[in-house]
Specification:
This protein is mostly helical. The protein has one domain. It is 49% helix and 6% strand. The protein has a three-stranded mixed β-sheet with strand order 1-3-2. Strand 2 and strand 3 form a beta hairpin. It is globular.
Length: 146
């Protein structure tokens, strides 16, 4: 299990890279509606947080038998907060992500001005444009050193 970074842009980078890795697995599909959702057909649907759970946190891919990867991390509130932050980031809700990480004071000035107007295309509408939006968000977060 890797240590996840504290900087939001670094956390997002890890999640995007993890998503790329888990999508290479034949039984994993990206679906931003579910953190980690085993399906009856043997596939597992993951969002950004789920990709991090499977790749960086080395949680096993769940089966439809009720096992949840959250069981492995349930006593680590800091880690859970980072996963919730990723859940907010995937839809462009930076203030929510910062609140999960106890950083809401960062959302001011130029940061607020940019992200109040920043829209993320839903993954379900267009995965390619969603990814471009996520990469743009990553670059802007890095520029703001968040």
């Amino acid at each position: 299990m890797k240590q996840l970074p504290d900087k939001v842009h670094e956390l997002l980078r890890v999640a995007l890279d993890d998503l790329d890795e888990v999508k290479k697995l034949p039984n994993v599909k990206a679906d931003m509606r579910h953190w980690v959702m085993p399906c009856d057909d043997g596939t597992c649907h993951v969002c950004l947080a789920g990709a991090v759970m499977l790749n960086s946190l080395d949680c096993p891919i769940p089966k439809a038998d009720g096992y949840s990867p959250l069981n492995m991390i349930q006593n680590n509130q800091g880690l859970i907060d980072k996963l919730y932050a990723l859940d907010d980031l995937r839809s462009g809700y930076l203030f929510g992500a910062l609140s999960c990480l106890n950083l809401p004071g960062v959302y001011r000035g130029d940061v607020a001005n940019f992200f109040d107007r920043f829209e993320v295309t839903p993954h379900s509408e267009n995965e390619e444009i969603w990814r471009q939006d996520m990469e743009q968000m990553y670059l802007k977060l890095k520029e703001f050193d968040i």
